[in-house]
């Protein structure tokens, strides 16, 4: 017999002729001189000299071990004193109990969903980088999760994590903010075959993301086409002159048409408006000529009206002066005064008769 000392934090395994016999815990033990004792540090994982199944038949030894078996489609997250330490892949692992507090979370990678008990801080650890896939939904977005091409559920704003496996995951996202769509340089014929170019805009917002992304393909392109068709329908009803008069009704008509048809696209029309109606060069020149002619005609009317009023005033004044000689003289003196204001020098000739002539002009007496 021989005496063996097993220190605290160690375990001894007794072998005879290479076969496992029993386990020795901390303390002093007597063993046969034919036996050999292999000591193991309980801080380190138990690395069995042979397959671990040869040792687990001993209930005492099995009670001292955490034995973790990981299948090919699994991983195990190992925690030491509550802190994540590493990922265990397929295989069998054994850790000593009692000295260090270990905990383990087994993950079935065949399932793409991640259990809520796993903290997100662990999921971004470098050790899990190859096992996790993530999708980010911005604050102004909403998303849809498709599994193997089939719609499963709606995703809220934030970062979403899933296990990496053979399951195909797709996340469709839609911008939930108000968006402006523009139809620029759209060439349209009026009822009288005048070619116009119209710049138009529409403002919309996604309200039903499932309809917009699942039940429809390229909902934005569909909305663009609906806007084009509505513009053509309205413009084609009127001649050029009628259209220019009904310009204010164009936006309202398109808005009402789009409101009705866009419900199936899962969007809501907020506003519409005409930015520009551009006429062809030759039509623009004709319109300018017409405008100039109209303004010239209006100016002629105003001129004639003023001339008529002036003539009427002159006639009234003449009648008053005809009936009143004193008024005639006052008017005559008024004009003389106006003339005198323009005269700086006067040269007189005529001898003694000049004074008599001036007296007659200013007093009316000879």
What topology does this entry show?
Layout: E1 2-6, E2 10-16, E3 19-24, E4 27-31, E5 35-41, H1 59-63, E6 65-70, E7 74-80, E8 83-88, E9 91-96, E10 102-108, H2 120-123, E11 132-137, E12 141-147, E13 150-155, E14 158-163, E15 169-175, E16 179-189, E17 195-206, H3 209-213, H4 219-235, H5 240-245, H6 247-261, E18 267-278, H7 281-323, H8 325-341, H9 353-363
Antiparallel strand pairs: 1-4, 2-3, 2-5, 6-9, 7-8, 7-10, 11-14, 12-13, 12-15, 16-17, 17-18
Helix pairs in contact: 4-6, 7-8
Structural features, described:
34% of the residues lie in helices and 35% in strands. With 366 residues, the chain is an alpha+beta fold. The chain is rod-shaped and about 180 Å long. The N and C termini lie far apart (178 Å).
Condensed summary:
The chain is of the alpha+beta class and 366 residues long.
